[in-house]
Amino acid sequence: MNKYRIGLSSIILALLARPASAQDFAATAGLGLEYYNAPSLSQYILNRAGGVTPGTYMTAVQLGAGIEYFVLEDWTLGIEYGYITNQSNGNGYQISYSYSMPTIMLRRALAGDNYYIRFGGGIGYHSFTMSQTDPYGGKTDYSTKGVGLKFDVAFDTKLSEDFYVRVEGDARAEYTGNFRAKDLDTTEQNEPTYNSDLSGVGVTFGLVYYF
Fold first, then answer.
1. Bridge partners of residue 12, in order along the sequence
2. Residue 204 parent element (H or E)
3. Within 13 Å and on the Cβ side, how many CA atoms surround 13?
4. What is the distance between the terminal CA atoms of the chain, rounded to a whole angstrom?
5. Which residue ranges in the chain fall short of pLDDT 70?
6. Are 122 and 101 in contact (CB under 8 A)?
7. pTM here?
8. According to the model, what pLDDT value does residue 1 have?
C-alpha cells in the first residue's frame, strides 16, 4: 500500500513541478448540433404538445466552452461547459427545455504538423430544466440533476500563431433522472413518471486559443 501512495505522490509532485511553457493552456468555444434520443421526455411532450415520436432521434442546438491544461506533453485535463436547448409548441402548449453540462475532461492530445488530434472523455454533475406554458396561460417549471458522461474526438487545424479551428464529434449520456415541478415535492397524483435521461451524438465547430 505504501509503494502505491509513494507512486501517486510522485505523479502529483511531477505535475505540480512541471514548468509552464508558452502554450500550456487551451481555451475553446464552439457551436454545433446534438442528435439525441430521450424516450421518456419525448413521450411527455407528445402527450401535451404533440409533434414528436418517442424512440426516435431529435436535433438540438449545442453550445460549448472550456479550458484545458497540458498536465503532460500529450495529455490535457480540463473543465468544459456544454449546453443543449430545444423546444416544442403545439395544442396550445409551449415547452422549452435544456441540459446544462459542466464536465471534467481528460484527453490525449497528439500533435502533428500544424494540427492536434484529441480524444478522451469525462464526467460531470449535470442538470435538466424545463418550462411549460399550458393553453390556459399557466406556467410550470421542472428541474432535475444527475450524472452525465461525454466522450469526444477532435481535430484542431492551425489558423494563426495561437488560434486553431476545431471540428469535434461527441457521444454523451445523461442520467439526470425523473423531473418534477420545482414547487412540488412529488409528482402529481395519477401522473405518470417521466425522466430526462438522454443519449446522443453531436458535432461542434469552434475555435481554440493556445496560450
1. none
2. strand 198-210
3. 6
4. 39
5. 1-23, 182-191
6. no
7. 0.84
8. 53
Q: What pLDDT sits at residue 86?
A: 96
* pLDDT score, position 199: 97
Burial class (CB in 10 A: 0-12, 13-18, 19+), 17: exposed
The CATH class of the 25-210 domain is: mainly beta
Q: Which residue has the cell 449520456?
A: 173
Q: Name which of 34, 42, 79 is nearest 170 in CA terms.
A: 34
Residue 54, pLDDT score:
82
The grid coordinates listed for 186 are 412529488
The DSSP symbol for 178 reads B
In three state form, how does the secondary structure of 97-151 look?
EEEEEEEEEEEEEEEECCEEEEEEEEEEEEEEEEEEECCCCCEEEEEEEEEEEEE
Residues 26-79 pLDDT 10s: 999 999 999 999 999 999 999 999 988 888 899 999 999 999 999 998 999 999
Is the Cα dihedral 29, 35, 36, 42 positive or negative?
Answer: positive
